[in-house]
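Problem: given the chain below (330 residues), write out its structure.
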Amino acid sequence: MTDNIRPESMTRITTPALAAAFIDEQIAALKEQIGDKKVLLALSGGVDSSVVAALLIKAVGRQLVCVHVNHGLMRKGESEQVIEVFRDQLGANLVYIDATDRFLDKLAGVADPETKRKIIGKEFIDVFAEEAAKLEGIRFLGQGTIYPDILESKDGVKAHHNVGGLPEQYDFELVEPVKLLFKDEVRVVGKALGLPDSMVYRQPFPGPGLGVRCLGAITRDRLAALREADAVVREEIEAAVAAGTIKPIWQYFAVVPDMRATGVENGKRRYDWPVILRAVNTVDAMTATVPEIDWPVLKRIADRILAEVPGVCRVLYDLSPKPVGTIEFE
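Solution.
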């Protein structure tokens, strides 16, 4: 598998046996590609990069250096969770970088979603290049690129920061062992690798993070409101699933657009942000349906957001499937 085209004859990975065969194939390929050099891996903590990390650990062990970048666009408590799971529990060679100001300063005043994605992607590459310069023997850059990323970038649906190769000035070779897999296949491989369910079934999260859910030009106050609203959405849906009130949902999150709506409080008019709730079910992320969430759950989410998140006066539920809509707004 040396190119970005998935062969039509490639068997979908749906069973532990097929996953085991894929793992053996990739470990052999990684050993041959990497040799005795070091790999720098962008570790977000999502299933894609986690599976890549597990494959690389099996293939090259301590030659892997995991780097987690907090770009200021993470979900609430997410970076702390990544550190706890990977460094404290799994003993990974993990470097943590807080680049919040660096990213948000670059994104100030930028409203176009594709431009935002490209800025975030370039900064990621720059951060990794700087980190690699501090280390000896780094020759490869690992990425959790999956096949829908390649398809959507190729077809012009949206740009992905991890698709398109590296600029010429960065002397890395890419390591992308799951680039021909769909999301459901990555999960099967993750289970076969022995990763805990908390990683394998972790909520999908785009590379640009909340940057593509804080619509338009990002401001720190609106980003803070989005982070809190998103935490409420995840807490309430996870609680409802655990209680058996609703069925498990593939992905759910909040979006805050760059606009204000009219509200009223204590008899006075106010102009605050709306929060849009987004929930979808899918198998391969190429198509998606919208689940019917029980009214009491939606009402509880709305009540909490309106009471707990400053600057918000409305809560909406997006009913658009993919297609015509995409999973993310930007």
